[in-house]
Amino acid sequence: MNYIIDKEWLLKKLHEQNVRIVDCSFSLAEPKKGRQGYDQNHIPGAIYFDLEKDLSGEVGEHGGRHPLPNIEEFIYKLETAGIDEITTVIAYDQGEGAFAARFWWLLQYLGHEKVYVLDGGFKSWREGNSPVTSEVPTFKKTTFKPNMNHDLLASMEDVRAVAGEQDSDTILIDSREERRYLGLEEPIDKKAGRIPGAINKPWFEGLDSGYYKHAEMQKQRFSDFNPENEIIVYCGSGVTAAPNFLALKAAGFEKVKLYLGSFSDWISYQENEIE
Fold first, then answer.
1. Of the candidates 84, 118, 148, which is a domain's last residue?
2. Angle at the Cα of 227 (from 221 to 231), degrees rounded to 5?
3. Is residue 17 domain-shared with residue 62, that is, in the same domain?
4. Helix locations, 27-155, DSSP H
């Protein structure tokens, strides 16, 4: 199934009653920048979900830098935004892809199938001279009934069971840039390196100037993997691994999980080895 849509598709759906648009714009360097940009201009009808306030939980000893949000609280926020399990939802960011993909993954985890990512994000939308507004919409509260898809989430124990195992049928994908994967530099986390046995597939190689590469090119990126094998993707904190998760789905891989805590969670356990 194709979960990536273009602005022409969204323009046709823009004013449909059962469509919700979610602005996930965020800057890791400037956490307030996403909301400030939304307040200035956004796609008409869009509501704002913040990476750290809405799409992540409280940071603790374990769980990584962007842990799974409290599911009941997240569902309440969806309901307040007028989103139920049959609403068509389109997420976008500024074109980076990672923040919208994080929201997309969370709804997939809740069992919501009709959720999509706007290819090229808000940058693409503005280039097309499409309508924007500063108006913040309100919607009638609804009820969201989740159908949890736990198969999409890999725990630290799941990863530990396959890390460094030569004969494992599970493939570990490290989605970070090569220098962090190799442990040559680590600008964010307390330790450098990778989870033993992980293969490097930088997340940004699945995009071209903010647009996702088409399915055949994604298949080529992952042509060294057997589609029958289980794949676990991770990054630093579970955010930039989401575009790789989405790209794998576009390439036809079905057995894909996200290690949401990712490397920042892995290193929080002193006994875990680092390669």
1. 148
2. 80
3. yes
4. 33-40, 71-80, 98-109, 121-127
Q: pLDDT tens, 198-246?
A: 999 999 999 999 999 999 999 999 999 999 999 999 999 999 999 999 9
**pLDDT for 119-131, tens place per residue?**
999 999 998 789 9
Of the listed 4, 107, 207, 235, which one is catalytic?
A: 235
Integer angstrom CA distances of residue 115 from 22, 40, 107, 110, 168: 10, 25, 7, 11, 32
pTM above 0.90, yes or no: yes
Instruction: For residues 19 and 102, give the distance between their C-alpha atoms in angstroms, rounded to a whole number.
Output: 19
Alpha carbon distance 89, 106 (integer Å):
12
Are residues 227 and 102 both part of a single domain?
Answer: no
Residue 271 lies in a domain: no
| Catalytic-residue membership of 24 | no
| Pairing label, strands 211-212, 207-208 | antiparallel
Three-class SS of residue 80?
A: helix
The β-bridge partners of 234 are: 174
State the Cα–Cα distance between residues 170 and 42, nearest whole angstrom: 41
Burial of 81 (0-12, 13-18, 19+ CB in 10 A): buried
| 253: CATH | 3.40.250.10
**Cα(232)–Cα(158) distance, rounded to whole angstroms?**
9
19-23 vs 231-234, strand pairing mode: unpaired
Instruction: Select from 185, 195, 187 the least CA-distant residue to 235.
Output: 195
The rounded distance, in Å, linking the Cα atoms of 127 and 47 is: 21
